[in-house]
Amino acid sequence: MANSNIQLHPPSKKKTLWAWTIGTFFGAGLLKPGPGTYGSIAAVLLWFIAAHIFPVTSLSLTIGTIIAAIVVTLIGIPAATIVARESGREDPGHVVIDEVAGQLIALIAIPADWRHAALSLLLFRLFDILKPPPIRQLERLPEGTGIMLDDVAAGILALIVAQLAHLFF
């Protein structure tokens, strides 16, 4: 699934609006170059804005981020499946809801300042692009599950490294 150029079937003329809206994260996945980075940046910006607009404690921000990551993942799996099928591609680059989910996971328990948010973004993008084992193997899962879970794993790895960096530095 790493290769978004693998075409399974001819693209469908049908586009399921809700799935394309969610799958491209409201169009962020249609931006070039690097749609995945745009999806991650959109997630960080929304998280950062929410953390500063709403009166939240560190605990409530962590809980809210966990809930958001779970909801995005659960909605993202069927949305990514539909968009992949309608695109005729195994893992289309314009599907970025997986980056949103992974990035949200990487932001769990991160202090709400720009330095920590930037570190989280950089770590997530690094692990999402490099896909160290066992992340790459998760791409082999079928359809939207594989599209989503490799980024979930990259988010978990970024979260662990960010927490260790926060602990030691």
TrEMBL record:
**Organism superkingdom:** Bacteria
Among InterPro entries, the record links this protein to: PgpA, PgpA-like_sf, YutG/PgpA
UniProt entry keywords in alphabetical sequence: Membrane, Transmembrane, Transmembrane helix
Its recorded name reads: Phosphatidylglycerophosphatase A
Report the PANTHER family cross-referenced here: PHOSPHATIDYLGLYCEROPHOSPHATASE A (PTHR36305:SF1)
Q: Name one GO molecular function term.
A: phosphatidylglycerophosphatase activity
Annotated YutG/PgpA domain residues: 22-166
**Matching Pfam families, A to Z?**
PgpA
What species is this protein from? Edaphobacter dinghuensis
Q: Which CDD domains match?
A: PgpA
Transmembrane annotation, as ranges = 37-54, 61-84
In the UniProt record, the signal sequence range is none
Q: Name one GO biological process term.
A: lipid metabolic process
